[in-house]
TrEMBL record:
Domain of life: Bacteria
Domain MobA/VirD2-like nuclease: 56-165
Biased composition (Basic and acidic residues): 180-198
One Pfam family it belongs to: Relaxase
Transmembrane region(s): none
Bias (Low complexity): 287-298
Protein name in the entry: Mobilization relaxase component
Chain residue ranges for the region called Disordered: 169-198, 276-301, 537-577
Organism: Streptomyces albus (strain ATCC 21838 / DSM 41398 / FERM P-419 / JCM 4703 / NBRC 107858)
Signal peptide: none
Amino acid sequence: MIPSVNPSGADTRGLLYYLYDTGKHEDHIDPHLVASFDDMSPDPGRDPNATLTDLQRLLDQPMMALAEHARPAKHVWHTSVRADPGDRLLTDEEWASIARRIVASTGIDPGDGQPGCRWVAVRHADDHIHIVATLVTEDGHRPDDFRSGARAQAEARLIEKELGLHQVAPGDGTAAKRPTSAERHKAERQGRARTAREELREAVRRAVSGARSDEEFFDRLSAAGLLIRTRAAPSGDLLGYKVALPNDLNKDGEPVFYPGARLAPDLSLPRIRERWSTGSPASPQEAATHTGPGTPAAARREAASAVWQTLLVFEHREDPVAAAHIAAAGEILDALAVTSAAHTRRELRDAATAFERASRSHVRAVRGRDRTLRQSARDLVHGGTALGRGEDGATTAMAIDMLFFLITAAAHWHARKGHAQQAEAATRAAQHLRTAYQAAAAQPLGVLHARGRRLNRPMLRRQTAQLREALPELAEQILAEPGWYALAATLADTEAAGHEPGDLLTAVAEHRELTTADSVSDVLVWRLRRTADLPAYASHLPETTTPGSRGTPHRPTSERAASTKRRTRGERSLNAR
C-alpha cells in the first residue's frame, strides 16, 4: 500500500473537480466519499443536490475565517493511497478506516481532542482513494504535519500487516522522489506512459553511464534532446544543472526544468562528478586489458570480463567499495539497455530502471576501484548498437549471464545490510535479466546445441567422462539439462583450442556459485567461452574431431593459449584473496 503525499496545492476546487470527473479518465468510476472529518460532508458523487463548490467551501472555511494576509498561499494537502495490484478488493468501510488512520498519523487530524484540519476521502476506483485536506486547523493554526509523507508510509506498513495486504519494504530516505499527482495527471492528459520526471531521470542516468567529464555528460544530455540550464559561481565554476523535456510546458508555455538532485539524490552535479574522479591511477593490469571501444561484440565481451572480475572480489571488499561497484553495475545495465537489439531492449531497460533503486543506500560509495566497470559501460556506449544475432547476439547473452550473477550478489549484499527496498529492487532487476537472457541466448545456444548433437559418440563419451570427473556433484544434473549438448560442443572447442577441458571446467565452476542458475550448463558455456577466449557465436568454427579421425582440429597460436592461461591463473589468485 503506497501513500503518495503532495502537501503543496493551492486550488481545492480544481483538485475536487479532477477527483469527481468521469469524462476523461477510464478508472474514475462512481466517485464518492468514503469518509470525512465530520462524516456529514456533502458528497457530489452520490447526492444530486450537492455541488463541488459546496464541498470546497466547507473544506476551506477555517482558512477563509482568517484575515486575508494570514491565509497560506498553498493550503491544499493531498495524498493518494493505492493498494498493491495483487491485493484483494477493499470495501468502502475498510478504505474509510484507512483514511482516518492516515490523517491521524500525519497530524492532519490527530484526534484525541486535538484540533484538526477538515478533510475528505474520495474513492473513484477500486484500488485507491484520495484524501484532500485544508492546511488550517479548526482553531486557525497550521497542523503539525512535519514529514507527513514518512509518517503516512509508516502507518501504511502497519495497515498492511493488520489487513493481510502485500507488505511493501520500508524506505530509508534514499529513494528518488516520486512523481506528484499533478505530474501523473499531466502525463495522462498528454497520453504519455511516464511522467516528465521519470523520463528525465532515465535520460540523465543514461548520460552519466561511463561518462568521464562535465563536457561529455552535457554533450550526451544535449544529444538526447534535453533542454539544459546550468548554474555557475561568480568565478565561472559550474555549480549545478537543470534539465527539461522540450514538450513539457507549464501554463505559460515555458519548459518545466528539474534540477538533477530533484530527479534522484545521486544525480546532483557534485555526486555525478564523484563518479569520474580519477582516484588512484590505473594499474598496469587494467591498462593492459583495456583496448578501448571497438565493435559492439568486443565491448560486450569486455563488459562480461569486467563483471566477472568484479564478482571474484565483490563480497570481500569494504562496504563503500562494494557500494561503488553496485552503482557502476547500474551504469553497465543502462549502457547495455541503450545499445542492445530490440528483442532484448525492453527487458534490459526494465532491469536498469528497477536496479536504479538498488544503486543507492546509506553506504556512501567510494569511487576509484569501480573504474573498470565504468570504462566498460563507456565502451558499450561508444561501441554502438548491437545486432540481435551472430557474435553481437551471443556476446549480449554472455554479458547478461555475467550481470545476472553480479546483480544477484548485490541483492544478497543489500539483504545482509538490512536494505530492504534495495534488495527487493535488485531481485526484480535480476528477474528482468533472466527474461532478457532467454531472448538473447536462444539462437546462439541453439547453434551450439546442434553442433553438440553432431559430435561423434567417442567424443561425447569423453566429454561426459570429463564432466563427471571435474564436477561429480553436478554432473548428473547437467547431463539431464537441454543445454548439455551446447556444453559438450564448448568442451570440444576448448580442447581444440589447446586447453585441458576438465581443468578449465573445474576452474570456472569454482569461481562462483551455480545454485541460482536456471541452467547450470548454460552458465558454464559462457564462462568457458569467455575464459578460453573462444568466439561466443560458434557456427563458423570447424567441427571438432577426435584424435585419429579425419580433419585437423583448430589450434590457437601459442601466444593466445598462454594469454588464456595467465587470465585463469589471475582469476584464481583474485578468488583466493
